[in-house]
Amino acid sequence: MEELVIIIGGGPAGAAAGCYLSKEGIPNLILESAVHPREHVGESMVTATTRIFEELNFLEVMEQEGFIHKYGASWHPAKAGASLHVEFSEIEQEGVNQDYTYQVDRAKMDMLLLKHAEKMGSKVIQGVRVKEVVFENDKATGVIVNIAGQTVTIPCKAILDASGRHTVIGKQLKIKEADQNFNQFAVHAWFEGVDRGNRPNDIHIHFLPVERGWVWQIPISDTITSIGVVTDKKVFKGAKEDYEAWFNEMSQGAPDIAKALKNAKRVNKIKVEADYSYKMDSFVGNGWMLIGDAARFVDPIFSSGVSIAMHSAKFAVEQLIKALKVDDVSSKMLKPYEDRVKLGTEIWYEFITLYYRLLPIFTVFISKQEYRLQVIQLLQGNVYDRASAPVLDAMREFIDTVENTEGHILKPYLDSSLSNIENTPAPHLAIT
Ligand SMILES: Cc1cc2nc3c(=O)[nH]c(=O)nc-3n(C[C@H](O)[C@H](O)[C@H](O)COP(=O)(O)OP(=O)(O)OC[C@H]3O[C@@H](n4cnc5c(N)ncnc54)[C@H](O)[C@@H]3O)c2cc1C
Q1: Taking CB atoms and a 6 Å cutoff, what residues make up the pocket around ligand 1?
Q2: Which of 54, 138, 210, 273 has the fewest C-beta atoms under 10 angstroms from its C-beta?
Q3: 304 and 158, same structural domain?
C-alpha cells in the first residue's frame, strides 16, 4: 500500500502540514498550483501562530527576515472620537515567549514557509494544479494532475486538502455551504505615504458608517501599508465594478482613515475578494482531511485565518499519525480532528457574530477590567477551549438586555439580521 500523504496547496496550512508530517518521518508531497512567491490577502497575524512557528523552527526565519512586529490592535470609530487599543503583552500566553506577532507580506512569508517545509523533508512541486481527487469505493486514493501536458494519477495513502478558498474536495463532493449570516466583500491594495499615527505597528481597524463596513490598515514594511475596505454585499453592489472609485469613496468614510490616507499613493493594483464566508459539511472522509480555508472560512475581522490554517494543519497531522499507526484512515478514525477544529472555528465565529450583532459591545467589554483580558485572549487566537471564554456568555447576556430593554441607548446599533446566533458547543466539550 502506498504510504505517501499528498497535500493539495502550499499556503500556510499545506506548508505547516508538510513540516509536521516530515517531523514524524512521514513521506509527503505538496502540490502547489502557483509558483511562489504569489500574492495573497491576509497580512496580519495573531500571537497564537507564534507557537506554531516555534514548534516548526520557523520563528528564527520570521525574525531574520525582519517582518514588522505587531504588538497590538487599535479600533477607530466611524465618527470623530477616541480610538481604543489593546496590547498582547497585557496577558501572558503559554508557550509564547514574545509579546508581539507579525504583519507580513504574504508572498514572502508563504514562500519562506514552503521552502521551510521542503527543507524539513516535504517534496514540493509548484506550478501543478490538482484537477481532481480519485475515489475508489468512497475512499480517496490519489489525485489527478497535469504535468508537462500529460495527465497523471498520483496514488497515496491519504490526502490533506489545503487548497484554500479553491476548496478542491469541497467542490468535488459538493459539501460546501454558504454562510447564512455573512456575505462580505473586500477591496484592497498597498499604499505608500500613509500616516500611521502614534501606534504605527498595530493593525488599525476603522469602522465605517455602512452595513458591516470597516477598513484595515496593516503596515507591511517601513514604507508600505496595506489598506482594505470590507462591507456587506449590499453596500458593495454600489461599486458597479468601478472598484477603485468605490474604494476611494469608502476609505474616506471615517475621519481617522481619511486623515491617514491624505497623502497616500497606491503602489499596486486594486484587488477584490468576493463572498468568502462558507463552511464544509464535513472536514474529514475516508482517506481525506480538509485544513485551513479548504475547511471553513470565517470573517477576517480578527485576523484569525493563518492561525486557524496552521493550527488545523497541526491537529490534522496529529490525528492522521494515530490513524496511520493502525492502518485505518477511515472517516471514523479521522473524525476527532474535525471535532477539535470545529470547536475552535466556532468560538471565533461566535465572537465575530456577537461583535457584528452589536458593534459597540466591543468597546463596552474591552473597557471592563473583568472581561478585557478574556477578550485579549481571544484576540491572541487562543480559541480552542470554550471553557476559558465565559466572556462570550457575558456578551450574549448583554445583547439580550439591550434587546429587551425599552429605549436602551444601544438599541439602534443592533443588527437584527443576526438575531439567530448559534451557540457554540457547551464548555464541557472543551478539548485541552
Ligand atoms: C479580505 C480578507 C482578509 C483577510 N485578512 C486576514 C488577516 O489579516 N490575517 C489572517 O491571518 N488571515 C486573513 N485572511 C484569511 C487568510 O487569507 C487565509 O485564512 C489563509 O491564507 C488560509 O491559508 P490556507 O493555507 O488555508 O490557504 P491559502 O493561503 O489560500 O493557500 C492555498 C494554496 O493552495 C493552492 N491551490 C489552490 N487550488 C489548488 C489546486 N487545485 N492544486 C494545487 N494547489 C492549489 C493556492 O495556489 C494556494 O497557494 C483574510 C482573508 C480575506 C478574504
Answers
A1: 8-14, 31-34, 40-45, 129-130, 162-166, 168, 186, 228, 273, 276, 292-294, 300, 303, 305-307, 309
A2: 138
A3: yes
Number of domains in the chain: 3
40 CA distance to ligand 1 middle (Å): 7
Residue 264 maps to a domain: yes
pLDDT average, residue stretch 269-285? 91
Is residue 290 one of the residues assigned to a domain?
yes
pLDDT tens digits along 316-336: 999 999 999 999 999 999 999
Q: Which atom of ligand 1 is nearest to the CA of 216?
A: 8
Q: Are residues 35 and 127 in the same domain?
A: yes
Ligand 1 midpoint to CA 361 (Å)? 29
Question: Does residue 251 sit in the same domain as residue 400?
Answer: no
Contact 191, 267 (CB under 8 A): yes
- pLDDT exceeds 60 at position 426: no
CATH number, domain of 134, equals: 3.50.50.60
pLDDT in tens, 118-141: 999 999 999 999 999 999 999 999
**Most informative mutation of 19, 20, 40, 225 for ligand 1 (most atoms within 8 A of CB):** 40
pLDDT of residue 181: 84
The residue whose C-alpha atom lies closest to atom 17 belonging to ligand 1 is 42
- Tell whether 166 and 194 lie within a shared domain: no
From 6, 306, 380, the mutation candidate for ligand 1 (largest count of ligand atoms within 8 A of CB) is 306
**Residue 419's pLDDT band (boundaries 50, 70, 90)?**
low
9 CA → ligand 1 middle, Å: 9
Question: What's the pLDDT at 429?
Answer: 30
Please tell me whether residues 140 and 269 are part of one structural domain. Answer: no
Q: Measuring from atom 51 of ligand 1, which residue has the nearest CA?
A: 42
Residue 121 and residue 15 share a domain:
yes
Mean pLDDT of 340-352: 89
